[in-house]
Design a protein that fits this description.
With 501 residues, this protein is an alpha/beta fold. It has 13 helices and 18 strands. Strand 15 (382-390) and strand 16 form a beta hairpin. The radius of gyration is 24 Å and the shape is globular. 39% of the residues are buried. Bound molecules: 6-O-phosphono-beta-D-glucopyranose.
């Protein structure tokens, strides 16, 4: 296994929640699995005045109990207080980094992780650059930023302009944690390392594609952020469109960051824009209302803390769209995401066209259902193929059966969490699983007219749906004829039988 070069990870916003809950545990896992070099350090920075030791004490409670390893890990952690707006503090940060690399004998390879509110995304990189901390002459200087990359097309563009003023695109790592999920990456392997899928992966054989990301949780104390965001910005513009990119792209010429991101970009460029007058035909928005689940009263979205009691923010989106290119002409794509749905599941359903002739109809016992390939991203990562078989016994009764693979059966392999994988990739300098600036803008370009229509046209309804249900039933209306969404349940193969609330 290749190990990244010695380096220092500088975390901005180190006293925040994300650092404690996600970043440090992810780096710790990399450390435990011997995926980091012996010579590395973490320098936490934030406004809160703390000593190295006090910062270590804050972190330790988020690490699994393992005294020996934890004390080795904590020895690699340092802290520096910073006022993000003060240029002098960046000079001090630079001096601190210089003294660390000297004492630890590490080259000046720095990964700057911005775990801060997005309004600092153009402040911190600019001030780092003014202090010369974008200069790669003595070692790499990379930036990691988290979504949101802008709140609309205009702000996404200006963020890119501001970052690219001082950094090359290949120094910028925009995290979309969905791309770090094992099964999202496995999509490429499923498609391009098997002879059986790719020949049928097109308009000639595929009837429709459905991508659902359901969450049973609500806004969980993030009402202040979410009420200005909504499901379209929070999930569709980034995570779900990136998944669409992976499902729909052409085979890249090589497995390299730019080759793959070019193909994703081509998909985004082919998304058919939704016209203002078509909004209601193609996009459904919803908001959860109060309900009772298993005897427990559940608050509606408008009653959540920090949410406007008259809010029109969507907690659910379902949409239909087309990719106007050679491979996908005429194939509808459906996306659905929502909070307070019955279960937590993210999956891709590839539904194949029916056989041209229903031979067994003549028996009157026809149970034909379309073949579906279901790629389960979470939980219980795996792949399920649904196909028709003859029921044993007299006559020809056709029934659908499942062939399923669960990642959990690869028991002895450590499945890295999304953040582990992405941090490791950024240390290798591999940007494959990060969003490129132009693809972020292309995704916004597709979404922006929908957001504009919602803002301008108050006649576009926002449907209520009781918490714990599958969202407004109007979203079934996006599909033709008898079709409905797949209503997956917790168990990969027993769909339709029960749902975990
Ligand atoms: C985040 C969103 O990006 O993704 C959250 O801001 C959402 O609102 C989360 O809950 C979903 O991620 P996951 O990995 O739990 O599907």
């Amino acid at each position: 296994m290749k190990i990244p070069d010695p380096h220092i990870i500088v975390i901005f916003g180190a006293s925040g929640d994300l650092t404690k809950r996600m970043l440090i545990p992810a780096i710790h896992q990399l450390f435990i699995h011997h995926l980091l070099p012996d010579d590395f350090a973490i320098l936490g920075t934030s406004r809160t005045p703390l000593t190295d030791e006090a910062f270590r004490q804050r972190i330790i409670e988020f690490l699994p109990a393992d005294e020996e390893n934890n004390s080795k890990f904590l020895n690699k952690i340092y802290y520096q207080t910073i006022d993000y707006e003060l240029q002098d503090d960046y000079q001090e940060l630079k001096s601190r980094l210089e003294s660390l690399i000297q004492s630890l004998n590490i080259p000046a390879n720095y990964l700057f992780y911005l775990s801060t509110p997005p309004n600092l995304y153009d402040v911190i990189p600019e001030k780092l650059a003014l202090a010369g901390l974008n200069n790669q002459a003595d070692g790499y200087k990379r930036l990691i930023i988290e979504k949101p990359f802008g709140i609309n097309l205009a702000s996404a563009k200006s963020l890119n302009i501001s970052l690219l003023k001082d950094y090359e695109e290949n120094q910028i790592y925009r995290i979309d944690h969905y791309l770090g999920k094992e099964t999202v990456q496995n999509l490429m392997v499923t498609r391009f390392a098997n002879g059986i899928f790719e020949p049928v992966w097109n308009r000639n054989f595929i009837e429709r594609v459905e991508i659902s990301s359901a969450e049973s949780l609500g806004v969980e104390g993030r009402g202040g952020y979410y009420d200005h965001s909504g499901a379209m910005r929070d999930m569709v513009q980034n995570h779900l469109l990136q998944v669409v990119g992976m499902v729909a792209m052409e085979p890249p010429v090589v497995i390299e960051a730019d080759a793959i991101r070019h193909e994703v970009m081509k998909v985004f460029q082919s998304l058919r824009p939704i016209k203002p007058e078509e909004m209601q035909k193609y996009v459904i928005r919803g908001q959860y209302t109060a309900s009772t689940i298993k005897g427990e009263a559940i608050a509606g979205y408008r009653d959540e803390p920090d949410v406007n009691p008259a809010s029109h923010t969507e907690t659910y989106v379902a949409m239909k769209f087309f990719i106007d290119n050679w491979r996908w002409a005429g194939v509808p794509f459906f996306i659905r995401t929502g909070k307070k749905l019955p279960t937590r599941v993210t999956e891709i359903v590839i539904e194949f066209k029916p056989t041209p002739h229903h031979l067994f109809d003549q028996t009157g016992l026809d149970q034909y259902k379309p073949n579906q390939l279901i790629i389960r991203i979470q939980p219980d990562e795996g792949i399920l193929l649904k196909f028709n078989m003859k029921e044993p016994g007299a006559g020809f009764r056709v029934n659908q059966v499942n062939m399923d693979f669960h990642y959990s059966s690869l028991a002895d392999i450590h499945l890295p969490a999304a953040y582990e994988r992405l941090i490791l990739d950024s240390l290798y300098g591999d940007a494959t699983l990060f969003s490129r600036g132009d693809t972020v803008e292309a995704a916004w370009k597709f979404i922006q007219p929908i957001l504009d229509a919602w803002e301008k046209d108050s006649s576009i309804p926002i449907y209520g749906y009781p918490a714990g249900t599958w969202g407004p039933y109007e979203s079934d209306g996006l599909m033709d004829g008898e079709n409905t969404w797949r209503y997956p349940c917790k168990n990969l193969s027993d769909d339709g039988l029960y749902c975990e609330l």
